[in-house]
């Protein structure tokens, strides 16, 4: 049963630089290696990179999509969830994560950071919006996933 | 990749008789045996029975939940999706299904039948609300899953 | 304060015959004359007719829209509410109504009838889907609005 | 028809200091005096203060609520909209505003700022989260409402 695993959300821009793509891929791979499930928004950029990494690591990926068409999902998503909620799906990404790792992104990412902190879920920041001391800052992908696992064990 | 598989929704009451439970379990098992993924509302009754059957058949089960807590899902759900939308999750069950099989249920099931027909998705009825000629009536579990697969291939 | 008034939902097809349009207009007018607020889906057909009638009767009209653009609302809506939820707005129409009057409509209307009955809210049917004994059948517009007011007073 | 008016969103904390309450009340009053409609989250703190000010100024107030019970709305709301979407209603507050004025608030307010900027709607900040140069900073209530009106005219 996948449901007993830890669900780790990865958020970040739908477009991103190669450096950020690499970083997100490493985060995704380490999530899978830790036996956790990746939850993301299912589209491109950071979401695609994290999903690609998670599949490389042998994990399972859930993509919570804004539209009603599951074919919108990037190629590395195992389980697409078509919401038809538009940006409202951002909240569902957070609701389905036990802990969230935020990478660089724009205002959509900021809305997700807001929701995550509002719900009191642990949030790890990796070179992202620096808006709150409630966000734990990580140095690199390895550090971020380690912190996520530690936090969710304390929190859950 | 699970995303390339057919997603079959099963809808029906959160409480049900033993007969309906058995029927839903058979439907779930045949869905899994056909290599399709089961989508349901993730709770008890018909949803639980179909999920139980799908796991018996070696399949994957997605439970789209009304609340925000994935532990709400029945024991046979692999991928719980916590929506926090209340009854609004009924629409997401339909949106995530390529075809829907309706079993006996109450008014929540009726709302899902309405959505499914409104979206023009193929709908198979098995001893359920008899509200439309656009619903295809099946005789038993085997018949229902066969019809679902036939319809989704024509429709998709 | 409008909030202390009774909110009466009117549901029905986005396209309708002239006869149904006239009926919906009468329903809307009587809702306004009774001092209640009209809630509807904000678009054409039955929704437009009921809104037109309510404005003729000097009332207030709320249109809960599927899209994100409030200009989608028909000309008789005072307060458009842009949800961006697509058909998911059907549930919000019901949630915002103390009692619902259903006129002829297609599957979207059926989903709303399902939700209304699922939420246990009083539902008055006027020449619409005949799916449940929990729906109270009215003869004409006057009868429907009278029943709605009676029911909401008992229910509230 | 209210629908032809400008809809101005006011966002901010559900709890606030007396100073912020006074500021929000002034903002609400000036919105009403300008002939615009106030959209807010319908609860306490900044939302209540802005609604109170808008009613003092003779305006109309819409409260888009997280729950399913319209009685949740503060006493100054004319039109409560019960969404049942929880924090998801934050997005609906933004979707229903032509321009948004942000006052001090916590993480819920941050999620709304993120959504507003993501949707490319003009956003006026009044002593709130300083997260983006796309947010226009105002000095006081008068300034904020003036800027909001100017921006929405250019933007619309």
| Approximate helicity band of chain A | 25-40%
- Binned strand content of chain A: 15-25%
Let me know the largest β-sheet of chain A: 7 strands, parallel
Radius of gyration of chain A: 13 Å
Task: Work out the number of β strands of chain A.
Answer: 7
Strand order of the largest sheet of chain A: 4-3-2-1-5-6-7
Helical/strand content category of chain A: alpha/beta
Shape of chain A: globular
Mean pLDDT reading of chain A: 96
SSE run of chain A:
EHEHEEHEHEEH
Count of helix runs of chain A: 5
Q: How is this structure best described in words?
A:
Four copies of one chain form a homotetramer. The first copy, chain A, has 156 residues and is of the alpha/beta class. Chain A has helices spanning 18-33, 46-56, 89-95, 107-118, 141-155, and strands spanning 7-11, 37-40, 61-65, 79-82, 99-102, 123-125, 135-137. The mean pLDDT of chain A is 96. A seven-stranded parallel β-sheet of chain A has the order 4-3-2-1-5-6-7, with helices on both faces. Chains in contact: A-B, A-C, A-D, B-C, B-D, C-D. The interface between A and B is medium-sized, with 23 and 23 residues.
């Amino acid at each position: 049963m996948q449901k007993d695993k830890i669900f780790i959300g990865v958020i970040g821009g739908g477009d991103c630089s190669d450096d950020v793509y690499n970083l997100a891929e490493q985060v995704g791979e380490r999530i899978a290696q830790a036996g956790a499930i990746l939850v993301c928004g299912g589209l491109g950029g950071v979401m695609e990179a994290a999903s690609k990494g998670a599949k490389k690591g042998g994990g399972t990926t859930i993509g919570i999509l804004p539209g009603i068409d599951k074919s919108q999902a990037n190629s590395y998503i195992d389980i697409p969830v078509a919401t038809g909620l538009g940006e409202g799906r951002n909240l569902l990404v957070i609701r389905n994560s036990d802990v969230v790792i935020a990478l660089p992104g724009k205002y959509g990412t900021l809305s997700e950071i807001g929701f995550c902190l509002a719900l009191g879920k642990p949030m790890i920041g990796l070179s992202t919006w620096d808006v709150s001391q409630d966000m734990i800052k990580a140095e690199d992908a390895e550090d971020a996933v380690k912190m996520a696992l530690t936090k969710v064990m304390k929190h859950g």
